[in-house]
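Retro notes (design track)

What went well: tokenization of the new backbones is finally stable.
What didn't: we kept losing track of which sequence belonged to which structure.
Fix going forward: every design gets posted as structure first, then sequence, in one message. First example under the new rule, 205 residues:
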């Protein structure tokens, strides 16, 4: 069984009630809301959301399409997508890192023996913003990480204006990040991943 399949809080939410057609036959309905790990087949949908979310703000994307495919092939278990009726509306992509702080190499590498989960990107589709979906997805992602025995910390880098958002999600600022992208500078933040034994006893992890 995959780690994701063992987690009750990441299983699809209840289906909407089937609706009847005029002839009395039921129509097939997709889950109203579903959380699952992403696959390489989701890469284009991921990139479309990311491109719209980031290019207008910073002029570039944290991950380009080939990099999205790269991570979804190497470590799909460190991604999480939120789907509404089969449509991707928000996502997180992560990989493993094996040093205390992020470096330029962390932008493209996945370190299988690492214990820090580097969160590369969180993005929400433009029509679903200002609804709290980003913080809900992050909460579910951190709950998921608590059931991965190798995960000890979550790390990310963000611009100054996003620091309050991630602080509300439980992250603490570590100070300026050594990573730069063009003229952009970032703050590095971390969230400890705790409670492995408790989560295993109580959620089937």
């Amino acid at each position: 069984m995959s780690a994701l399949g063992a987690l009750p809080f990441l299983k699809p939410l209840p289906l909407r009630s089937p609706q009847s057609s005029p002839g009395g036959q039921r129509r097939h309905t997709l889950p109203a809301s579903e959380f699952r790990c992403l696959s390489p087949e989701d890469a284009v949908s991921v990139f479309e959301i990311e491109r719209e979310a980031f290019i207008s703000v910073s002029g570039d994307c944290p991950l380009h399409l080939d990099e999205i495919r790269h991570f979804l092939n190497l470590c799909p278990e460190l991604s999480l997508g939120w789907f509404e009726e089969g449509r991707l509306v928000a996502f997180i992509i992560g990989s493993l890192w094996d040093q205390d702080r992020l470096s330029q190499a962390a932008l493209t590498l996945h370190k299988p023996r690492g214990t820090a989960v580097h969160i590369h990107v969180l993005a929400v589709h433009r029509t679903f913003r200002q609804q709290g979906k980003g913080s809900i997805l992050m909460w579910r992602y951190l709950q998921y990480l608590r059931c991965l025995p190798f995960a000890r910390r979550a790390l990310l880098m963000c611009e100054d204006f996003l620091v309050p958002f991630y602080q509300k999600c439980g992250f603490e600022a570590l100070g300026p990040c050594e990573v730069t992208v063009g003229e952009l500078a970032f703050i590095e933040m971390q969230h400890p991943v705790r409670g492995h034994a408790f989560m295993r006893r109580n959620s089937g992890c």
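Added context from the reviewer: Strands lie at 34-36, 79-84, 87-97, 116-124, 153-158, 172-181, 184-192.
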